[in-house]
Amino acid sequence: MEKFKLLGLLLDNPTMSQKKIAEHLSISIGKVNYILTELIDDAYIDIDKSNKNYQYRVTEKGRLFLLDEIDGFQKTKLSLHSEKRKKVKNAVILAAGSKEDFTQPVCLMEIEPKLTLLDRTLAILHNNGIEKIFIVTGYKKDAFSDIHLPGNVKMVENTKFQWTGSMASLATVANVLDDDFLLLEDDTLIEEVAIKKLLDHPERDCVLIMNESGTRDEAYVEIKNNHLYKISKDIHQLNRIDGEMAGVSKLSYGFFSEMITEYQSNMNPFMNYEYMLLDVSRKIDVGYLKISDLVWTDIDNDIQLKNAREKIYPLLKRKEEKAKIERLKKYIESALGVPCEDVHNIRAFGGMTNVNYRVTIGEDDLVVRMPGVGTEDFINRQEEKDNLILSAKIGINPEMIYFNAETGLKITRMIPDAETLTESMTKKENIMGMVTDVLLQLHNSEEKMKNDFELFRLMELYEGNIIKAGAAFYEGFEEAKASVYKVKDHYESLTIKKCPTHIDALHQNFIKSGDHKLYLIDWEYSGMFDPLWDLATHSIESEFTKLEEELFLQYYFKRNPTPEEEERILIHKIFQDYLWTMWTIFKEAKGDDFGSYGKDRFTRLKANLQEYNKRTCGVML
Known about the structure:
This is Winged helix-turn-helix transcriptional regulator. This protein has 621 residues and is of the alpha+beta class. The N and C termini lie far apart (77 Å).
């Protein structure tokens, strides 16, 4: 290293004395003399002596040595990460800038009726496990207050957006980010597969690039040694063009911290984040993901918006739908050994927790259940599998063909002439009889489920998950919680005989087959518990009136319920509304949107707490 430094010094200062060289390099004069002798022996320098003055000339061989050393230094970069791959749960969307053609942030423009660019981006992030999203606002920031955003989305403002570049916007999240993240520009319309592949890329610092588009308005990229080497919007700055940045990058927290440190000494307020990323990449490697056939566009003006609506988005949707169907076919092929070409008539249908598909294989109609994002946090799939087998054995659940306890993929036979019960159907006397017959088959079964439904552990888990997600509880939640736990203390003093219980016996999970057969599906929450829980579920989800509930309970008990049984049903209504209120807050914190569902349940929770209070002591809990 000292040889390199001394040679470089002589290149710029050929007449520098040995004393000055020693002072500059902080070494002894004797060490300087020794290195100079080495440089002469290596033919890296020549010396011209005139009287007592020396002039050093760096030879061509010496220049080549310097160039080789510099190239070696450039290839030697810091390694920030002991682990390469890491699950990314955070995202930052840069939405502070304005566009001349638009009177609102571009991400709030509709790409199809009732679907904004931001709606689509948030849905993609949710589908890929992103739990916390920060939107950096600036231009027309109040426009974001006028729309409903999921609970996991937080706003951060760049108050100087008019006088700063995108790096200033990115720097605004420095105080709220504490982990790796996905960085997106708000004007980018892109295939979901690009996000999936970038998140799966082994490099924790990685930019997404695509083929050169020819628009002359993008950040061109040059790759060297399989990593980012140059970024420039000036095509003349690059030796070669390996692609263009597509407005999406994945950055580690360590790399981002280096960007922020470098930016603290920045004197150019209009600096864009791409160039700060390039600066830091000179000492820390940045990988890249290139997708050549990517369907995408950015939207900077009216012409590009029109093109996005009329050409890009329709093409993108068709491609994504085709890819989704192909993935589903491959799942089925892997599970059942059925060739993909034999799977047809694929149709998606509803579900609050999961995504379900009806498919046809040969002459058989099957239902394929794909687990929803985040369900692994609160559903034990092995327990679900065991209970599905048990319910099919009892005869109240359709035949299960395949179940993967690791992925949650489930395939069952389609119920013939299937008709899902509606709220109005459950109020009919013959349907009440069919529902209670199914519940009695389950509750009176000699079969035993391997697991208990751990209600109170689940309550604590949901509350902990909400706190961990940084979501806000509803106003008045703490007071309601205190009352619920007083009810809990009373309930735990009762003697309850546990039996197989469905736990989620809402009317949508009862499927009628013809006039005389009824099935009960979706056993994700099932376990050994108080059977009256299922009665409470069905009653509140069917929105029975007091008279309708009396008739329903008479069908179940074959008599009028006792006061103790009525009290237990009311207690379970309280527990359910408390539990599913928290479930909704948690799910919405992760990006789902259930409208007023959670708040409606919370309102009913408070009403039932008052009803319980009247029945017990006449004093507010």
